[in-house]
Write the structure tokens for this entry.
Amino acid sequence: MKLSSVTHIGIIGLGMIGDSLAVLTTGHGYLTTCLARNADRIPEYEKTYDMYFRQMIDEGLIPEEQLAICRKYRTYTLDIAALKDCEIIFECVTEDLDLKHQIYSDIEANCPNVRAICSVSSSFVPDVLGSKAEKYKDRIIVTHPFNPAHMVPFFELCGGSATGEGVLAFAKALLESLDRKPVILKKPAPGFIGNRLQFALWREALNLVESGICGPEDVDTCLNYSFSPRYTTIGIYEHFDTGGLKLNLSTCNTVFPTLSNIAQAPHAITGRIADGDTGANAASHKGFYDWNGVDMAAYQERVNAPYWRFINWDFPKE
């Protein structure tokens, strides 16, 4: 259900996350103004916005006319003054701290009604983000999504030492009205929750391959056909509680000493980068896998498949 206290949402910084957030907010009937930094890029942003909705149409989740209705709630601008009435603004610019500081200064000068400035940063904590703010230090928080934000429901929120009372609760309520599943961290940490978990798993996956225990495809097969599907319906704490903590204790003491504890990227990554094999989008189209000749449209369908069930929104009717 829409929040009556939010009449206008701002998005600063378009592209991968910003475009997706615009789909999410307008798809829930919130008036949304998207601040672009380059007029020449706006047609590209509009194309991406339409593509996301057409994917929903193709999946049979919404009727054809829904796209035109949602477009009415979206405006692009080059002028930050157009965000002057926004109660909440999502900052989605690149991980350039100087740029973010300039954005916050511009918001302070132009947006008197803003109650929360929500950075989607995956690396900077709120105290760093707000270190140069003069008026709104208490309103700058992190609301880190996973891409694409309109499909993946999880958001992780954290405040800093200056965060004002009620700011995190306000942002959480807004995200819940957008059918997201937000959590508020008790204190900030680099990588927050999701990336810390994902990269702990990734570190051991790299270790398994570098140690000659198995190949990359074996790790992926294990994930696809063992515990990954389980964790789409229950949590890891639930799982180990029901399995019994005595067994868990024994396994922890046996396995933990053998796990990787490296503190930087291994040769498995740095060596491939040196060779130019930087992943599917590299000139070689190679990373750990050879992506030459792979049907990328079919791959993207597999990426999206687990998330369509979360798009059961109350779309605007007119």
